[in-house]
Design a protein that fits this description.
The protein has 166 residues and is α+β, with helices and mostly antiparallel strands. It contains 3 helices and 3 strands, in the order H-H-H-E-E-E. The longest helix has 44 residues. The radius of gyration is 41 Å and the shape is rod-shaped.
C-alpha cells in the first residue's frame, strides 16, 4: 500500500470522526436548550392563575361600573320623558289641575324601576307650564354613590285665539 493511499484513508477516518463529533455536539446543544426550556417552563408554572387573580377584580369593577353608568343614563332618560309627558298633558287647553302630575307618575310606573323615589312637580304659570322630575337611579352596585337625577321640561299652554276679521 502506498503512502498516499494510507493518508487518504486516515483523512476519511478523521472526516468520519469529525462528522460524528459535530453531530454529538449539536445533539448536546439541543439537549441543553431543551433542559433550559423546561427550567423556564417550571419557573412560569402557576403564573396564569396569579395573573387572573390580579386582573379579574379590575375587570369586574369596570363591568359593574359600566352597567351602573348605563342605569344612571336610563334613569335620566326616564325622568326627562316623564317631565315631557307631564308638560304635554298639562298644556292642553283647559286642562284640569294635576293631570300632568298623574300622567308623569303613570309613565314612571310603566317605565320600571330605573328611577326610584321619584317626585313630580308641575308648575302651571300663565302661558307656560313646566314639570320637574327628580329621583334616584337604580343602584346595581351598592358601594358606588350616585348623584340624584333631576330633569325639567317646559312648554306653552294652548289657548284659543279669535280668528281675525277678514
Amino acid at each position: 500500500m502506498s503512502s498516499s493511499t494510507r493518508t487518504s484513508r486516515r483523512r476519511g477516518v478523521r472526516r468520519g470522526r469529525d462528522r460524528q463529533a459535530r453531530r454529538d455536539r449539536n445533539r448536546n446543544r439541543e439537549a441543553r436548550r431543551d433542559r433550559n426550556r423546561n427550567r423556564e417552563a417550571r419557573r412560569d408554572r402557576g403564573a396564569n392563575p396569579v395573573e387572573l387573580a390580579v386582573v379579574l377584580p379590575a375587570i369586574l369593577v369596570l363591568l359593574f361600573a359600566s352597567v351602573q353608568a348605563a342605569a344612571w343614563f336610563l334613569a335620566r332618560a326616564t325622568a326627562l320623558n316623564a317631565a315631557q309627558e307631564a308638560v304635554s298633558a298639562q298644556r292642553v287647553y283647559r286642562a284640569a289641575d294635576g293631570v300632568g302630575q298623574r300622567r308623569a307618575e303613570e309613565f314612571i310606573h310603566r317605565a320600571g324601576d330605573w328611577l326610584t323615589g321619584s317626585k313630580v312637580t308641575v308648575q302651571p304659570g300663565g302661558d307656560r307650564v313646566s314639570a320637574t322630575v327628580t329621583g334616584q337611579p337604580l343602584r346595581i352596585v351598592p358601594l358606588i354613590p350616585l348623584p340624584a337625577v333631576s330633569e325639567t321640561a317646559s312648554g306653552t299652554v294652548e289657548r284659543v285665539t279669535p280668528e281675525p276679521p277678514p
